[in-house]
Design a protein that fits this description.
By secondary structure, this protein is mainly alpha-helical. The protein has one domain: Up-down Bundle (Four Helix Bundle (Hemerythrin (Met), subunit A)). Helix content is 74%, strand content 0%. It contains five helices and no strands. Helix 3 packs parallel to helix 5.
């Protein structure tokens, strides 16, 4: 298993963990029988946590596709690993900025993550594969 493939697992874990602040902030108000109750995700930390969580699910398919494509096309593994790690680091920063209510910096982090994915996706072209 490559480092980039482990980053796929870590990206999923980060997406799952990003909803935890909302559940912890809610105390006893969170109803696991109705986990998507919009009334629970009120403005503030809970709604930001949910936003980071949902965005993780939105970002993951492109990341997974880009990693798998790059590996299947024989891009040097060091390149794939470096870009996957960069994406994951930026995603951690993205979640932290989302939770801290820093929308402008969060958008910059999102853009950097997207750029990592585009670079991964296009890496076979650059590697002549």
């Amino acid at each position: 298993m490559t480092i980039a493939e482990l980053c796929l697992l870590l990206a999923v874990i980060l997406t799952i963990v990003s909803i935890m602040p909302a559940k912890m902030d809610g105390g006893g108000a969170f109803d696991n029988g109705n986990p998507r109750d919009p009334k629970f995700y009120t403005p503030g930390l809970r709604v930001r946590s949910q936003g980071a969580h949902l965005n993780g699910f939105e970002a993951f398919p492109f990341f997974a596709t880009a990693v798998i494509l790059a590996e299947m096309r024989g891009v040097p593994q060091t390149t794939v690993n470096a870009l996957a790690i960069a994406f994951l680091v930026v995603r951690v920063l993205y979640v932290a900025l989302y939770l801290a209510d820093k929308p402008s910096f969060r958008s910059l982090a999102w853009s950097a993550g997207f750029a990592c994915n585009v670079a991964l996706f296009l890496s076979p072209f650059w590697a002549g594969r």
